[in-house]
Design a protein that fits this description.
By secondary structure, the protein is an all-alpha fold. Helices cover 81% and strands 0% of the residues. Helix 3 packs parallel to helix 6 and helix 3 runs antiparallel to helix 8. The longest helix is centred in the last third of the chain and has 36 residues.
Length: 274
Amino acid sequence: MSLYTSTVVVPRPRTRRWSNALAGFGFTIGLPVVLLVVWGVSSSIAPAAFFPPPLKILDAFARTWLGPAFVTEVLPSLGRLTAGILLSVTIGIIAGTLIGLTRWLRELLEPTLEFFRAIPPPVLVPVMLILFGPADSTRVIVIVAGSIWPVLLNTIEGVRATDSVMTETARSYALTRGERLRYLVLPAASPRIMAGVRQCLSVALILMVISEMFSTSSGLGFQIVYFQRNYLIAEMWSGIVLLGLVGVLLASVFGLIERRVLRWYHGIKEVERA
């Protein structure tokens, strides 16, 4: 059993759980509904060419994305996004753990890591296209090159912040390096790692769109630019809405995973608040 994750979680009453879920759902959809109503009313009172009403955007959304374009444009973009996120998280956690555990390696790489972290990820897109060419793999590399840093740096800091008393306790019980890593270091660093993954998702989505705006003829980013250049305003807004929905889906999936991985951590917080 993990030295960190053995906390007993006090279960909430079922009725309270349902009421909290309904209240959370109401808060989640409340503001978007209000904004849509305000947008619809204002667009009917004072029509604007570049801000079509929500119903027109909804119609363009159905015509544009609920058909062959979903297979030819959306799915490839989501595939590249998923591959970039998985590679960023995997490489970031492995490299961050190694650097965090090795003091001399951390001191050697710290200036270089800080240098690359300070570079805005979008400026990497033309560089990567020059180095690797306009292929799908290049767009995945762009996503990884920009979104790996939150995971990597948060993992390093999380591993470094492992409680020294618990580390000495693990050594006194003759735990091997692998056991300390599995049952102490990674659970202790997991809150910071998950915070880095959350930032990674948003950066990866941005880079997916930007990479598809350069030297490509497919994908969500390309389609949005195409609609904008041809003054297909409703279709352009429908692409932006689709990107927002993808972001909401990513956040929802991440929330489920985070609650599962950090169940022990949230249990500690609940006990502290009680």
